[in-house]
Amino acid sequence: MTLRELYSEIGGDYDKAVRVMRMDKLIDKHIRRFPGDGVAEQFFQAAESMDPERLFEAAHAMKGVCANLGLTALSETASEIAEEFRPGSRRKLSDGQVSERIAKIRELYSRTVEGIQKYAED
To answer: What CA–CA distance (Å, rounded) separates 10 from 59?
Structure first.
């Protein structure tokens, strides 16, 4: 499986990843590290507590990492959570809507990790 095929399988934006990282070697290095980098784990722990400050920080970090890797669906959904809990902002979503977005992130993350593991095995 090529990187482009991986991105197609996981719904990522390979061309965006190339624009940010410039070389397949760097994309390969960072996409392989993504499942174990701790960013998602921190996000899911913060989501369990629903602590606004922790959730903002974790969602903001996840948004950035995913954006740089061209994982657009994950980045966009994490961005929604980050904006919802941005300090000084008024919440717009109900707890139920936040929970739905967190569930979507879990689903997207699982699919992404499965694809990366499959890619790494090739």
So the answer is: 20
pLDDT average, residue stretch 13-28: 96
The whole-model pTM stands at 0.91
Sorting pLDDT into bands at 50, 70 and 90, what band is 122?
Answer: confident
Residue with tokens 């979507």: 104
In terms of Cβ atoms closer than 10 Å to its own Cβ (0-12, 13-18, 19+), residue 121 is exposed
The 10s digit of each residue's pLDDT in 63-82 is 999 999 999 999 999 999 99
Domain of residue 42, CATH code: 1.20.120
Q: Scan for tokens 């139920």, then name that residue.
A: 96
CA 31 – CA 40 distance, rounded (Å):
13
CB 17 within 8 A of CB 69: yes
- State which residues form the domain around 82: 3-121
Residue in 94, 99, 24, 37 with CA at minimum distance from that of residue 66:
37
Number of domains in the chain: 1
